[in-house]
Amino acid sequence: MTTTLEAKRELAALLEEKKRRRELVESLPWEWAPRDYQRALWDYLVQGGKRAVAVWHRRAGKDDIALHWTCKAAHQRVGTYWHLLPQAAQARKAVWDAVNPYTGKRRIDEAFPRDLRATTRENEMMIRLRNGSTWQVVGSDNFNALVGSPPVGVVLSEWALADPHAWAYLRPILDENHGWAMFIFTPRGRNHALRTLELARSEPGWFAQTLTADDTAIFAPDDLDRIRREMIAEWGEDDAEALYTQEYYVSFDAPLIGAYYAKLVARADAEGRMPHDVPAEPGVPIETAWDLGYTDDTVIWWFQVIGREVRILDYYSAHGETVEHYCDVVRDRGWDYGPAKRQRHWVPWDARPKTLASGGKSILEQAWAHGVHMKVAPNLSVQDGIQAVRQVLPRCHFARGRCGDGIEALRNYKREWDDDKKAFRNKPLHDWASHPSDAFRILALAWKERAIPKDEKPKEMKGMDAVTLDTLFEDRERRERQL
Hints:
Structural class: alpha/beta
Number of strands: 16
CATH superfamily of the largest domain: P-loop containing nucleotide triphosphate hydrolases
Shape: globular
Largest sheet: 8 strands, mixed
CATH topology of the largest domain: Rossmann fold
Strand content: 15-25%
Number of helices: 18
Number of domains: 3
Helix content: 40-55%
CATH class of the largest domain: Alpha Beta
Oligomer: single chain
Strand order of the largest sheet: 3-4-5-2-6-7-1-8
Distance between the termini: 102 Å
């Protein structure tokens, strides 16, 4: 009798719990409602919209609306959902660990009620909901390394700072499974994010919206004046004005703070040195400049030096491929590199042989075997290389049609920010723009110091005596000291 009564009580409690959770799901978003200026985006998503671009000023609640919408969507359709920020470390700080200053609660706890969760994995920044959906905070810098079910909904937060290749990877997946995507950001110059906004404005079915601080009225005029004064005191008037108009008035024309080459790239564009195509000069061999990687990107620039002019003709980037693949790309492009032994395919001095090594052969040996005669660029510091790029850029004419991705990388290459000291470090930030910019630095070094000793074909050795890139470099140093 007692057992039967206890069983009935347990069943009643279980049914009550299920009812409470069902009511909670039906009431999503939980204890939150979109602000007036957020309503247009929210209504678009509720009505089934699949592609949304929100260019809102700083502190307008971009991530908030994305988190609450994702929780609601994850209960409407069981699947995998991602919230991407440019880097995984940034994702943890800005979203996973972020606390709402008005409530003192973690933002993920407000958007994803714990009663609706099956598990929460802190290390992986992942939530598994009771209905089977999963939501994860990830970095768009390693989007192609994520495993598991393909997503049916993604938020690309700080899209202006993210790797533009992330969308090229995600778009076919979402097109195939009828998933949705949100692009939320404040501008960072006239880069790929601006093109996404322009696409949204012209493409039927997309949502596009820009909101300045005046549009939302979150900040009173006195507050905006104070913010601007504080920024001037911290950054100086020129940088502060650029940052202020970018962050609070969503300006795409504001200069990029901390960027190495943004102004020089903008000048090249303004001076008409970025047409769709740049012709190669017949009879003048074309050279290439490389940044080598395996798990990271390998990047190749094609260029031609005509007197004081440098023509940037072509660009290629990929990752996870072999030396043979890149050599095939170089050959298949059809450019005239001149006689084999006089070709100039420039690689970094500190290229690591093991990264792309195969069968005990160095990168140089593999490239020579596939008909690409690599040469080692001058050995200068990163800062000297950056200075060389600044010297060569005013001479460059870019074929925008083939080099668009590389140009955007140069525009976005910037110094690393020290959040503790609130200042830029004197070294580059390692992100999606690094490898194209590193390869262009090799180009600049090769252009700057043309008198490079003639290379001979590396001799293949067997067994433990196989030639490596390091031994070739050491041999080169010995020969140069004897000259």
